[in-house]
Amino acid sequence: MATPPLLSVRRLRVLYARRGLLPGFMSGGRPADIRAIDDLHFDLQAGETLGIVGESGCGKSTLARTLVGLQEATSGSIRYNGTELIGLSRKDWRPLRRDVQLVFQDPLASLSPKMKIVDIVAEPLKALRPEFDAAARRSRALALLERVGLGPELADRKPRELSGGQGQRVGIARALIVEPKLLICDEPVSALDVSIQAQIINLLTELARERNLAMIFIAHDLAVVRQLSDRVLVMYLGKVMEQGRADNVYARPRHPYTRALLEAAPVIEADGSKPKKRRLLGGDTPNPAQPPMGCVFHPRCPLAEHACVQSVPLLRRVDGEQYAACHFVAAGG
């Protein structure tokens, strides 16, 4: 019998109401809603890492905030360990905060500038692990800071005294102090230098393995996502374009958008030879308040035909555990 997923998302939609005299109106004259997330489906098993990738504005950060209850869903279902999260009150969410934690995109902006680093890391224990006294909280915070590569000499410093990479390690430690089962990372390395990115990715990989953490890792960089993901989900304008095992998606992308993202990624040749010319995806992402009819990717798709304008392609199995939302991707083809 298959193991039930730790997290199950079905038909998730998040709409933002448009107000004021801005572009994007319906025929009746009222502002059109922005479809941040539109009919999203995926499962996540315990101990598994799902990488979510897509261009800026595709709904990745909205998804992260919705999964942890910081953004209200319009419709659909988010079930964590059998519990429906949509519609939960603040009080009902509280016991789940120990299990589900978020690492924010901007490390230093998410840390209180007036608090010491050790107190920032220990603070979640006050609300979520009240059985620990002040001494125990500090001891656990110091141990976790050391585990993420920050020595005791940094414990009493303020966030302004840290580098971006150090700040991100503090954010990771703060999220892990309550021993969650699910960690959601919203572009945690996008503002960091490449060498620091690698350190953070290696750290997250080690911690996930040590603690059997389920992790959702959100990024716009396919190379970063590839390094630590078991499965990959590709988003475009709030919709899933493709998802599957990471090795399969990268070796044999089935959706035209996934192929375009991979072809646009820079490749450095190991032998020092001139890198291959990148094929860049043309056009701009459509206005989410006025999404195209049919397939949302068709205005930029090299394969687009009349059917792409007329109907929305379903996300369907095309090969093993690989799924794509495209009219012209044949199963096994």
Spatial order of the strands forming the largest sheet: 6-7-8-3-9-10-12-11
* Quaternary: single chain
**Shape from CA axes?**
globular
Q: Which stretches of 5+ consecutive residues score pLDDT under 50?
A: none
Task: Walk me through the structure.
There is one protein chain. The protein is of the alpha/beta class and 333 residues long. The protein is built from 10 helices and 12 strands. 29% of the residues lie in helices and 21% in strands.
Summarize the helices and strands and which ones pair or pack.
Elements: E1 7-16, E2 34-44, E3 49-53, H1 60-67, E4 75-80, E5 83-84, H2 90-93, E6 100-103, H3 117-128, H4 134-147, H5 164-176, E7 182-186, H6 194-211, E8 214-219, H7 222-228, E9 231-236, E10 239-245, H8 246-251, H9 256-264, H10 306-310, E11 316-319, E12 322-324
Parallel strand pairs: 3-8, 3-9, 6-7, 7-8
Antiparallel strand pairs: 1-2, 1-4, 4-5, 9-10, 10-12, 11-12
